[in-house]
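Long-time lurker, first post. I've been practising inverse folding by hand and with some scripts of my own, and I keep getting stuck on stretches where the structure tokens seem ambiguous. Below is the full token string for one chain I'm working on. Before anyone asks, I'm not after the true native sequence, just a reasonable design that respects the backbone. If someone could post their per-position residues I'd love to compare against what I wrote down in my notebook.
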């Protein structure tokens, strides 16, 4: 495995049907030729991703979408025009020639034109689109730097195209167009209000557990360490003998049994908190601590998407929940 900024190298591997990690403005992706089932299957194997969870197809240009979507309604047109290249994924009825493996057998396909200069240049040099989920083992925290990808996926991929730190830090907003209905499948940096303003209609909000977005499982983005969320001072006082790591929004007082305390945004800015969330969670997960304690973000704007990620990162099965009461 190699890390570098050589687009031609990345291109050569992808043309051979190999895996390459690509930078995007949201998180790093694990990319392969999106039209070749043998290449796509390497993604599922490398991530240990369940076969029922479909992948996003990344395109070089907005006007390519019609090659892959059999129906491109007015709302999709408006959204693509306003937000592509950018952190928006559109789920639309698929064209027949798209491999079933990519869409996990669904009749729809997820499309996005990402906004990162290296990856756009790469996509524009290829004569196929790129299938790319986030470049983490299935269920773990998404990578926002090349080093995060190298840490966990080095043995599974040929090349990491290093585009620096991801500027946004959480995954794209996913919107499904179903006839004239527009449905939010995953919250992200582009907010509900921005989407509704763009399409001039109300959007339905899918319960996040729905099979509609098979990847939106309750447990996701989960660190290996136990992670509790709530009132930090209260949770810390309940665990006086534990070695604790703290993840707060703004800086807090120093707690004596906290080995490390991180603040997502010293100035209380949700955009900055999004840039740091996954990377701080990863570093806390590596610390010699027994427990991570965090708090909810203000539930507005980007805070909605951040709380969605936090909820999944702390999701415990009923058995685990029982165990955590004894912690
Ligand atoms: O920002 C992003 O979207 C990043 C970068 C790399 O582009 N990609 C990403 O991919 O987050 P992934 O695979 O980690 O998450 C994609 C989500 C999954 O929850 C998947 O279930 C959902 O999109 N998805 C993909 N195709 C779908 C479809 N046809 N219908 C409904 N949901 C779909
Ligand atoms: Mg993912």
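-- Answer (accepted) --
I ran through it position by position. Result:
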């Amino acid at each position: 495995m190699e890390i570098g900024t050589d687009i031609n190298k990345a291109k050569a591997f992808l043309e051979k049907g190999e895996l390459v990690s690509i930078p995007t403005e949201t998180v790093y992706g694990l990319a392969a030729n999106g039209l070749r089932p043998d290449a796509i299957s390497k993604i599922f194997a490398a991530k240990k991703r369940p076969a029922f969870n479909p992948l996003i197809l990344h395109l070089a240009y907005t006007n390519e979408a019609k090659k892959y979507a059999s129906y491109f309604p007015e709302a999709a047109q408006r959204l693509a025009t306003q937000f592509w290249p950018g952190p928006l994924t559109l789920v639309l009825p698929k064209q027949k020639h798209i491999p079933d493996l990519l869409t996990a057998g669904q009749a729809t396909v997820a499309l996005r034109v990402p906004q990162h200069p290296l990856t756009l240049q790469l996509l524009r040099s290829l004569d196929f689109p790129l299938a790319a989920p986030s470049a983490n083992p299935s269920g773990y925290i998404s990578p926002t730097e090349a080093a995060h990808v190298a840490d966990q996926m080095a043995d599974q991929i040929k090349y990491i195209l290093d585009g620096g730190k991801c500027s946004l830090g959480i995954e794209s907003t996913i919107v499904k167009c179903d006839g004239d209905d527009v449905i939010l499948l995953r919250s992200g940096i582009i907010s509900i209000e921005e989407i509704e303003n763009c399409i001039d209609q109300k959007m339905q909000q899918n319960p996040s557990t729905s099979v509609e977005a098979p990847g939106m499982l309750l447990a996701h983005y989960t660190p290996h360490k136990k992670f509790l969320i709530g009132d930090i001072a209260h949770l810390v006082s309940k665990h006086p003998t534990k070695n604790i790591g703290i993840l707060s929004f703004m800086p807090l007082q120093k707690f004596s049994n906290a080995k490390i305390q991180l603040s997502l945004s010293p100035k209380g800015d949700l955009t900055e908190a999004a840039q740091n969330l996954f990377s701080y969670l990863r570093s806390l997960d590596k610390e010699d601590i027994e427990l991570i304690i965090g708090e909810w973000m203000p539930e507005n704007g980007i805070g909605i998407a951040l709380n969605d990620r936090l909820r999944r990162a702390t999701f415990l099965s009923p058995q685990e929940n029982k165990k955590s009461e004894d912690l």
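A couple of notes from the structure itself: Residues 133-134, 142 surround magnesium ion (ligand 2) (CB under 6 Å). The first strand starts at residue 2 and ends at 4. Happy to go over any region you disagree with.
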